[in-house]
Structures are given as structure tokens and as C-alpha cells.
Amino acid sequence: MSVMRASRRSISGLTPAAAAALSAAAVLTLSACGDGSSGTVTDDGRLRVTASFYPMQFLAEEIGGPHAEVSTLTKPGTEPHDLELSPRQTGELADAGLIVYLKDMQPAVDEAIEQSGAEHVVEASEFTSLEKHGGEEDGEDAGHAEEEGHAEEEADGGHEGHDHGGEDGGDPHIWLDPVRYAEVAEGVGKAMAKADPDHAAAYEKNAAELADRLRKLDGRFAAGLENRRTDTFITTHAAFGYIADRYGLVQESIKGLSPESEPSAARMKQLQDIAEDDGVTTVFFETLVSDKTARTLAGDLGLRTDVLDPIEGVTDKSKGDDYFEIMEANLGALQQALGAK
Fold first, then answer.
1. Residue 172 in contact with residue 131, Cβ under 8 Å?
2. Do the Cβ atoms of 106 and 83 come closer than 8 Å?
3. Alpha-carbon distances, residue 280 vs 153, 307, 337 (angstroms)
């Protein structure tokens, strides 16, 4: 700081050009005395990667390995949809070697990336396809319409009331489908290779290995859910549409795509009827949002409760330490709820 104070004291006696030059030199001196790093890479040569929230962080860490330093904008325990960023966080985005995010999942992140003017940005959904999923806002019995093969028509009802989701109503929870997540992993691997060509081979190798693990996980889900007593499961918010699509299940959500929305009395009555008609045994809740409504519904119907984790973040309440462990726990919970064990 002494350099800046000295420059301010001496500027008044200089010509405008000389004063500007001195100020610029002072700023550069202060920057050089900062954290010892050089912007898009760390001082030991690792690629700086900023991830929007846990599913993007997990990909970057697995693919980057020792060649990347990964930070996340969404700290553990924070509900991703509620994230607010400071001006400082927004400004720091411009210095990232690569930003990995999922558009329309976190409006604050979308806005911050746009404001930052960051050049090296990869958006996850560009590597796969988005589908329309919803809950009680989408009209009567949307989940059962899917069971009858009318998912696309029913989804066209729109999601104007949701806090997130694409402009076309696309569901952003793509990481819960191992096949789509594998596609994203391969795309992120290519993006990291482009951002850091010196380690391109390592990134592409790690991405391929991760994609293979994800496709094997898909195989375990398909086999584990094949023989089941019922297709229907009830969950807090409509985060599991891709799992339902992939494995022929019917998701019925208390809330819509937004975990902050509140169910209507009509929807709660509808869920009671669905539970009775379809032999539902379990109402699922999550780790990062309130379980009050799920427990109330379960109590009214005499059903058990369990966790089905959308893996939007990992905390000490999570049933596992990383994506794969939590997905295996999700598989076990679904097997028990659907009578597949």
C-alpha cells in the first residue's frame, strides 16, 4: 500500500501523462504483490477453473486432476438456486482460466458471467439435450401422462412460475442422468484441453475414464430398477425427471422444478390419490431444502420418508462423499421405495 500512497502524494506535481504512467505502475506493482499467481493459471502452472456449483465442480476436479485448481461459486450447504454473488466474486470471474457452469440453473451466476466479460467459458447443456419436466404447475397428473406416453405433449404446458429452467422450459438437472452427465464430461474435457493445451492428453483421458464410469453407473441403475413393484415415486421437487425418463419411472413432485415453490391444496389431495392408487410407500425429501412438506404428506398417509438426493451440493448430511457414492445411495433408496429389492 505504501507504493499507492507515494504515488498519490507525488501526482499533483507531474504532467497528466506522467501522472497516468505513475498510477498505472503503482497498480501493476500492487497486483504483482498479490497472491503470486498469474491470472488464468496458478503460480505452479495449474489451470484455474471456476465451477458454478457441485455437479460442475465434480467434473472439473475429476477431469483436471493435478493439472487444475478448481474452486466453486456455491459453497457446501448453500442451496444453489438461492446463491447471491458479491461484486468481488463477479470481478474475479474474468481471471479464471475456465468457467464451467450450467445455464438457467442459477440466475445470479448467469448474470455474473455476463457482467464479468470472461472469455473462457463452457456451458454444460451445450453438450447434451434438455427435456421438459415439471410438477404440479404443469396441470393435472403430469407424471401419469408420461406413463401413458404423453410426456412431450403434457410438458408443453410451460413453466412460467419456475425460478429456473431454460427459456423453452428445459429441466437443468441433467447430471442426475448418468448418460447425459457422461456427455457433459466429454465436452468439459475438450474445453479444458483447449484452455490448457499442454495437458490436453491428460484431460481427454480423464474425461473418457469418467464417462465410462458414468455409463457403468447407468447400467447398474437399469439392472437395479428393472424388476419393481411400482413405477411411481413422490419427491419434494421435480429434480428427478431425467431419472424417471431414463428408467421408465413416474416422478410425482410435491413442488415444481423450483424447490422454493409451495404446493396447492389440490396438489396435495392429488398426491394422496396417486399414492393410494399406485401403492406408493415412500415420500422422498432432500438434504438442502426443508423436509416439512414431505414429512407432513407422509404422516397424513402413513408412509415412510427417505432421502433422494438431487446432488446439488454435498454436506455432512449427504449419504456419501461424492457424486458416485450419493448416486449409489439414491439407487438403493429407489429400489426399496419401488419394491425392486
1. no
2. yes
3. 25, 15, 7
Give pLDDT, residue 55: 98
Looking up cell 505504501, which residue turns up? 2
Q: Which residues are registered as beta bridge partners of 48?
A: 69
- Grid cell, residue 330, equals 439414491
Rg over alpha carbons for the chain, rounded to the nearest Å, is: 24
What are the Cα distances from residue 162, in Å, to 129, 206, 255, 262, 288?
A: 20, 36, 10, 11, 18
Task: Count Cβ atoms below 10 Å from residue 5 Cβ, excluding itself.
Answer: 10
pLDDT tens figures, 177-223: 999 999 999 999 999 999 999 999 999 999 999 999 999 999 999 99
pLDDT digits (tens, 9 = 90+) for 157-182: 333 333 444 445 589 999 999 999 99
**Phi, psi (rounded to 5 degrees) for 44:** -105, 15
Distances from the Cα of 59 to the Cαs of 100, 182, 210, 214, in angstroms? 9, 10, 8, 11
What pLDDT does 300 receive?
A: 86
Cβ contact 107:87 at 8 Å: no
Q: Where are the alpha helices (DSSP H) in the chain?
A: 2-11, 16-32, 54-64, 87-92, 107-116, 142-147, 151-155, 178-195, 200-224, 241-247, 265-278, 292-301, 323-338
CA–CA gap between residue 61 and residue 334 (Å, rounded): 28
Rounded Cα distance between 279 and 273, Å, is 10
C-alpha distances out from residue 220 to 213, 214, 323, 326, Å: 11, 10, 15, 14
Using alpha carbons only, what angle is made at residue 77 by residues 259 and 75, rounded to the nearest 5 degrees?
Answer: 110
| Global confidence as pTM | 0.79
Residue 148's pLDDT band (cuts 50, 70, 90): very low
Cell numbers that stand for 95 in this block:
481471471
- pLDDT at position 260: 60
Hey, CA dihedral for 201, 203, 208, 213, is it positive or negative?
A: positive
Say which residues have a Cβ less than 8 Å from residue 180's Cβ, sequence separation at least 6. 128, 129, 174, 242
